[in-house]
């Protein structure tokens, strides 16, 4: 049994079981607080018995160059520790972020995932995401990423998910 709720600053004191996982990108405290201050409606925690953190998602709404069709929800981090994987936790957290993005009238939701993370790519594909483009050296200049996207109801023609024909570099990202 788990409960989903808004991520709070107090969760930063209780999420070590999640962030100590080697597959989790860990950020500094300022980074988390910035997200909670600017985009609180895009940040959620899954909590289990005893108020144990079972996972979280941090996201935001953004646009490239002020172009309206580029208005989208972005998944900055979604993570579930090994002991709670394969229980649908990540899917539930992603569903919440997509729900907020729909409410915020976004055209799509995007995320970056390591090209080598086949399990995550498979999970996102099952959730309706597709590979939009490959980003060369996105992770510390050493590992490529896929920019994966899922069109939302506002993107009737699904323009936001038409794949780019060639890879890009991090400097080329909008």
Automatic annotation (TrEMBL):
It holds the Pfam family Acetyltransf_1. One of its GO terms (molecular function) is protein-N-terminal amino-acid acetyltransferase activity. One of its GO terms (cellular component) is NatB complex. Keywords: Acyltransferase, Transferase. SUPFAM superfamilies: Acyl-CoA N-acyltransferases (Nat). It comes from the Eukaryota. Residues 2-153 form the N-acetyltransferase domain. Belongs to the acetyltransferase family. ARD1 subfamily. PANTHER family: N-ALPHA-ACETYLTRANSFERASE 20. This is N-acetyltransferase domain-containing protein. It comes from Prymnesium parvum (Toxic golden alga).
């Amino acid at each position: 049994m788990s409960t989903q709720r808004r991520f709070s600053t107090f969760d930063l004191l209780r999420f070590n079981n999640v962030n100590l996982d080697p597959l989790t990108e860990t950020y500094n405290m300022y980074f988390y607080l910035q997200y909670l201050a600017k985009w609180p409606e895009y940040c959620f925690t899954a909590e289990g018995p005893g108020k144990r953190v079972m996972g979280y998602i941090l996201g935001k709404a953004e646009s490239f160059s002020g172009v309206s069709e580029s208005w989208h929800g972005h998944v900055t981090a979604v993570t579930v520790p090994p002991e709670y994987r394969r229980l649908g936790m990540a899917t539930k957290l992603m569903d919440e972020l997509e729900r907020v993005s729909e409410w915020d009238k976004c055209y799509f939701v995007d995320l970056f995932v390591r090209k080598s993370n086949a399990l995550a790519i498979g999970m996102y594909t099952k959730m309706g995401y597709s590979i939009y483009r490959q980003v060369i050296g996105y992770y510390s200049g050493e590992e490529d990423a896929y920019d994966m996207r899922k069109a939302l109801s506002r993107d009737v023609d699904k323009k936001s998910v038409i794949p780019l024909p060639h890879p890009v570099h991090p400097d080329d990202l909008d």
